[in-house]
Amino acid sequence: MRLLLVEDDSMIGESVLDLLRAEQYAVDWVRDGDAADTALRTQDYDLVLLDLGLPRQDGLSVLRRLRARRSRVPVLIATARDALAQRVEGLDAGADDYVVKPYEMDELLARIRALLRRASGRAEPVYEHQGVCINPATREVTVNGEPVVLSGREWAVLEPLLARPGLVLSRAQLEEKLYDWKHEISSNAVEVYIHGLRKKLGADLIQNVRGVGYLVPRA
Predict the structure, then answer these.
(1) Alpha carbon distance 53, 59 (integer Å)
(2) How far is CA 11 from the centre of its chain?
(3) Cα 38–35–69 angle (5° rounding)?
(4) How far is CA 64 from CA 31, 91, 168, 215, in A?
């Protein structure tokens, strides 16, 4: 999953960035409203963690511009503005959820996972296909009921494919799940992780579509 962190406080930003990357999310961090607006116009994200008190452009303005473009990306507001009227204003502007600073990191992660599940249209956060079962909330993986350990990047490749059987994802789309702006992308990274997944989960689970990308076939 690729997230955009919009936070101007360096100490908070560093802490949240480390937390999210430890959870194997790819994260881009910007520190003002103009940079956030540019990122949201030029990149695809699975979720935005948005502060409101930003330089150059307020977070609510960023949010309103985003929704005016009919983007449905989940937005979690994280701010010190804890008055009821301000929370209502943020939600009415198009935010999906709201967490007040200072927040517990476990709560932040739980809210992020819940929004990602909701955006995927899942009441229950479980995917199952040909004996392979994954739980995005816990990142547990089993094959025919037996637990399998995946690396964070193997998970990042597997989850979007297994979530959408029959849909072809290009190598570039999968690469976006692995890296953020600060990482270089090796030319064969996706192939390496898919090879590892096939060894652990079965050779036929992920199929090549020559010249296009990869898919998990429909059951």
Answers:
(1) 6
(2) 22
(3) 35
(4) 18, 11, 32, 35
What 3-state class would DSSP assign to 7?
coil
CB 145 within 8 A of CB 128: no
Cis peptide before 102 (omega within 30 of 0): yes
**Whole-angstrom Cα distance, residue 59 to residue 190?**
35
How many CA atoms does the CB half-sphere of 113 hold within 13 Å?
A: 17
Question: Tokens 């290009």 identify what position?
Answer: 170
Q: Give the pairing of strands 207-209 and 146-147.
A: unpaired
pLDDT in tens, 28-69: 999 999 999 999 999 989 999 999 889 999 999 999 999 999
Residue 53, beta-bridge partner list = none
Q: Domains of the chain (ranges plus CATH)?
A: 2-119 (3.40.50.2300), 127-215 (1.10.10.10)
- Give the mean model confidence (pLDDT) for residues 107-113: 89
